[in-house]
Specification:
The protein is α/β, with parallel strands linked by helices. It is built from 10 helices and 16 strands. The chain folds into 2 domains: 2-121 and 268-323, Alpha-Beta Complex (Quinone Oxidoreductase, Chain A, domain 1); 139-262, 3-Layer(aba) Sandwich (Rossmann fold), CATH 3.40.50.720. It has helices spanning 42-49, 114-134, 151-163, 174-182, 196-204, 221-225, 249-254, 265-268, 272-287, 304-312; strands at residues 2-7, 17-21, 30-40, 58-59, 64-71, 83-86, 97-101, 105-107, 142-145, 166-171, 187-190, 209-214, 228-236, 259-261, 295-300, 319-323. Strands 3, 5, 6, 7, 8, 15 and 16 form a 7-stranded mixed sheet that branches. Helix 2 (114-134) packs across helix 3 (151-163) and helix 2 (114-134) packs across helix 9 (272-287). Residues 11-322 form the Enoyl reductase (ER) domain.
Length: 325
Amino acid sequence: MSKAIRITQNGGPEVLKLVDVEVPAPAADEVTVRHHAVGLNFIDIYFRSGLYKHPLPHGLGNEAAGVVEAVGKDVGHVKVGDRVAYGQSPIGAYAERHNAKALQVVKLPDFISFEQAAAMMLKGLTVQYLFRQTYRLQGDETILFHAAAGGVGLIACQWARALGVKLIGTVSSPEKAAIAREHGAWATIDYTRENIPERVRELTGGRKLPVVYDSVGKDTWEASLDCIEPRGLMVSFGNASGPVTGVNLGILAAKGSLYVTRPTLGAYAASQEKVQAAADELFGLVESGRIKVNIGQRYALADAAKAQEALAARKTTGATVFIVD
């Protein structure tokens, strides 16, 4: 048996229950991982609330790190006893043990702890596909990145600095602005007090930007579009404030023949080779010290509701992990 968080209905944090579950032997293409740390992400809230649909009852979470306990017959790149991590899996990582798809599991280098891995796999691989694949930054751009003091945002700030990119990050307080700048943001905008497009133009001498990365959703959609130069790209990769709906494509024409994409990690890391290549780039930046994993909060699995409440209320900074040891 394994302790795991499960929900039987969609709703608020109160639907999260810690229960005992059976973990079956891994399928041919799966790996059973005994978790030491599990990552918390906004997508977990989307599945809990029902914004993202999944047959009930189900677990939550897609990101964790631990030790391999069993492997399926078709798995060759990891073995029992290996230290591993993953940033994608069948939903249900909020657990002591979990069966993950082998193609999404990578070996952990000795210099990365379980907590670091659980805090950065989904977030770090997200930044990798955003910066190196969706819009491949070259090092001479100025960009806008929303929620710059969050778990994804702090990795993005550091990665941008490593690339020589000027990242303007939106934040909700002076304290979060300071944290984002400490991690490499070139400038910050407090969206509770400042007009985002106006402040972008002030920072750039009147210029707009080639790309905006937006994980907030409906609350920042219009402001993001107003920051993009003609034929620039809007990368909408999250819905923290709710989904963007009812989009009039004519707005893209009116604002300068803009492009919009709604990417996902699964589409950019669809094979073991692609996952490993992205992870290698991330791990290299960690090893060199150019990316430091910021864990702002630690919880027990039993406190999953409290952790999700804090994340939804924007009371967190950096990454949040569940400690399973």
